[in-house]
Design brief:
The protein contains 13 helices and no strands. The chain is mainly alpha-helical and 302 residues long. It has one domain. The longest helix is centred in the C-terminal third of the chain and has 27 residues. It is globular, with a radius of gyration of 19 Å.
């Protein structure tokens, strides 16, 4: 008897893309709520990495994609975890407590621009005029945020904006240093994600203890702790959605979610917290997203 495969719903990639972009935008709300609600940033990194890592580990175990424990895989997980999760999230959680949600979402959209710039410096990619123009537009957008005195609610926030830019810089550095060609043989995406998150938790624990920021959530939970728990749960599930979208439609299609996250971040900041952005920041959003679009251009024969 001949078996028939059920055709994939053509709306599934769009639904996943919308879901991923919306969740990434919503995560900024949860992070700000958690940090301003009393969760210490360094403790937050530990619990997020541990909780999300365990969720991804459970999903991977069902799919037969567990982390591998060879010396090569463990070393890769540590090198990936340190910049992308441990350091980057410590900066993100600290800066998000000071900055408007929409502004932090705009800053995170800078990641492709940093990635390409670092790729040029490390000679991983070649110089292309359109993509360089994208970098320059992104820099122009960043200057529109930090230079005008009326661009931010408080001019003193300019320092926190510059600190916030370190987050996409760390992600860009991780992508360049740990490119696909450095991926250990025989590894799976879910296995690497779980291993990297758990490695981040292992590094964040002694750091939070050393700085006196380690906290154990205890009932009755505060509003900040509940926001952290929701962030951990949704992020763990969102990791799986990202891998599914990449599997179904490829990384280029999935990359559109970063621009969607900016829109959702600004929208949620306005609807939930009543945040508004200056015209300078709206101009910066236009320049940065245009720059990201140009940087993401790939030559057909590349």
């Amino acid at each position: 008897m001949e078996t028939q495969t059920v055709p994939r719903n053509p709306l599934l990639p769009l639904a996943l893309l919308f879901n991923i972009g919306a969740l990434w935008g919503f995560f900024f709300v949860l992070i700000k709520t958690a940090v301003t609600g009393g969760v210490a940033p360094m403790a937050y990194v530990f619990w997020f990495s541990l909780g999300a890592g365990l969720i991804v580990l459970c999903i991977g175990s069902v799919r037969g994609e567990l982390p591998r424990l060879s010396r090569v895989h463990i070393a890769y997980n540590i090198k990936a975890a340190l910049p992308r999760f441990t350091i980057a999230n410590m900066i993100l959680y600290t800066a998000q407590g000071k900055l408007p949600i929409g502004l932090m979402a705009v800053i995170m959209a800078f990641m492709p621009i940093f990635t390409y710039t670092l790729s040029l410096l490390f000679r991983v990619e070649k110089l292309e005029s359109l993509r360089v123009a994208g970098v320059l537009l992104g820099v122009g957008g960043a200057l529109m945020i930090v230079l005008p005195k009326t661009s931010l609610p408080d001019p003193a926030l300019a320092t926190w904006v510059l600190i916030g830019f370190c987050v996409p810089l760390m992600h860009g550095a991780a992508y360049v240093i740990l490119s696909e060609k450095h991926r250990p043989e025989g590894s799976t995406s879910l296995g690497l994600a779980a291993g990297t998150l758990l490695a981040s938790a292992a590094m964040a624990l002694p750091i939070s203890l050393a700085f006196g920021e380690f906290q154990i959530p205890w009932a009755p939970f505060s509003k900040g702790e509940l926001a952290m728990f929701l962030h951990i749960t949704l992020a763990g599930l969102n990791f799986y959605a990202v891998f599914e979208l990449v599997r179904i439609s490829g990384p280029t299609y999935m990359s559109q979610s970063s621009s969607m996250a900016v829109g959702f971040g600004v929208l949620f900041g306005y609807l939930i917290l009543g945040e508004t952005l200056s015209w300078w920041v709206w101009g910066a959003i236009t320049l940065i997203l245009t720059g990201v679009a140009l940087v993401n251009i790939r030559r057909k024969n590349a």
